[in-house]
């Protein structure tokens, strides 16, 4: 499985303050735990080839599945592949691409031509595309420079705008409004966002599997393993 991690640490909010973000550890490592336990190897890539960033303040240090997966992949996150190099070398060996959550996924990934190339390949070759929470922000890249996003018509779940522009501001989780709305933008791109709250929901539409939040990380990992075994179990 190819993991496309964000290499961006900070999100500039609309009021000019920065939010310290990156890849959310639960949304990144718990789905990976299930997939690795099923026998799949993972390769980590970032757009720049620089280290994948982790939201350390959200790291659950007592969770053995998360900490064990981090121990197994720490070196790969610190010295990942450059995404363009992975694509140029060929993606035939990958059964799936996984785009983790964390607000950091909204930085860089949605405007990356390399993310577009990767999504095109996985769509064209009927391989799995797995994402969670803010990770589907990367799906915006698929529509760059095109009249229609090739993911238009797909149903997904993602972190709800109502929380990011409501409770997350009110409780101080975010220091200011995000630069753009995830669900609204996905809808404008022709995708159907099925959820308007955070419940741990997951969904699968064809070969695209998504989860709505950290609450969905465990189930999304199990869903991904089931889909991988269904497609590649023999």
Task: Summarize the SSE layout with pairings.
Elements: E1 2-4, E2 10-12, E3 18-20, H1 25-37, E4 43-46, H2 64-78, E5 81-82, H3 83-89, E6 96-99, H4 113-124, E7 128-132, E8 155-156, H5 161-170, H6 182-188, E9 192-193, E10 202-205, E11 208-211, H7 217-232
Parallel strand pairs: 1-4, 1-6, 4-5, 6-7, 7-11, 8-9
Antiparallel strand pairs: 2-3, 10-11
Helix pairs in contact: 1-2, 1-7
Tag the structure with descriptive keywords.
single chain; 234 residues; alpha/beta; two-stranded antiparallel sheet; 11 strands; 15% strand; globular
Determine Rg (CA atoms, Å).
16 Å
Strand content: 15-25%
What structural class results from the helix and strand content? alpha/beta
Largest sheet: 7 strands, mixed
Q: What is the count of DSSP helices, taking H or I runs of 4+ residues?
A: 7
- Encode the helix/strand succession as letters: EEEHEHEHEHEEHHEEEH
Number of strands: 11
Overall 3D shape: globular
What strand order characterises the main sheet?
Answer: 5-4-1-6-7-11-10
* Average pLDDT for all residues: 97
Helix content: 25-40%
Low-confidence stretches: none
Terminal-residue CA separation: 17 Å
